[in-house]
TrEMBL record:
InterPro entries for the chain: Polycystin_dom
Compartments reported by the entry: Membrane
Membrane topology: Multi-pass membrane protein
Protein name: Polycystin domain-containing protein
Keyword Ribosomal protein: no
Keywords of the record: Membrane, Transmembrane, Transmembrane helix
């Protein structure tokens, strides 16, 4: 059962408002496999859709470090990532 709902940063209900930048907001927005330009993954016991929540590593190193730190604090990155 795959989650396909979009959220606000911190996995909050999408009806709340947020003041995060667009890169952070996009990481909490469900994207289809077409939007991510990806294909399905075939495993040993299951086939997995390639849609999901993604962060694009693009830009200055200092911005990437800051964004990853913020995503960690917002629990986008956790022990199951």
């Amino acid at each position: 059962n795959e989650e396909k709902q979009s959220f606000q940063p911190g996995w909050r209900n999408n009806q709340t408002s947020s003041s995060f930048n667009s890169v952070i907001n996009r990481a909490f927005t469900y994207q289809t496999s077409d939007e991510l330009n990806s294909s399905i993954h075939v495993g040993k016991h299951e086939t997995y859709n390639s849609g999901g929540y993604a962060y694009e590593f693009r830009g200055r190193l200092s911005d990437l470090q800051s964004n990853l730190s913020e995503l960690y604090q917002l629990e986008w990155i956790d022990s199951q990532t």
